[in-house]
What we know:
This protein is α/β, with parallel strands linked by helices. It has a domain of 166 residues: Rossmann fold, CATH 3.40.50. It is 37% helix and 14% strand. The N terminus is likely disordered.
Amino acid sequence: MTVRSTESQNDDRYVVWLDIDNTLYSASAKISQAMGERIHAYFVGLGHTDEEASVLHHRYYTQYGLALRGLVRHHDIDALDFDRKCDGSLPLEEMLKPDPKLRNLLQDIDRSKARVWGLTNAYKTHAERVLRILGVDDQIEGLVFCDYANSDFFCKPEPEFFHDALKRANIIDTSKCLFIDDSKTNVEAARKLGWGRCVHFCEHGMQAVEGGKEKMIAQDGTIPDDVVVISKLEELRTVWPDIFKA
């Protein structure tokens, strides 16, 4: 995969921003459950009881959008060590497989009209690994990730993360951003910053883990009227018809 942080200043194409985890693959892969178990174990490894670990995990996820953000801020841990023990230890090759349908979807985006970038709260090694296993790494032109090597990193839904993404892709007109994420909070944050056509990926009825707590995925009626909700990525063909090949 070619990952670059700058683009031509006069490139006025749309940019499709793809969240990766629980968006490019289904929650049925149970990766959020496996990740939740590892994050819980990491909290316990810091000396917390099971109950304390659960409370802190959920609190930090809710407050910052990423449990690791709270760990770095309040516990002075090494984010790269966390990444190795949590994301890095996931048996992704056993949980995911190449997705020809996803590959066809991305290939059918007219690159004369839109660029395709990844926008993830994961570190680059995890994101690149997922994209490679799914068989779409060569379809992603750029990747904006949480830089765990920097203790002051930002993450979605913090405005600074979105501003950094715009800078890296050299975007001035935020209406050119087409964004999809499984997190309603992240989608709403993007809309507040003027990002154009935003989509909430919501697999109704599926089970997932957020902040260490098991939940059934369900559509929240409070989502803004101008945000489209879909349950299958193929629906992007009708949501964003103007960027797909005829």
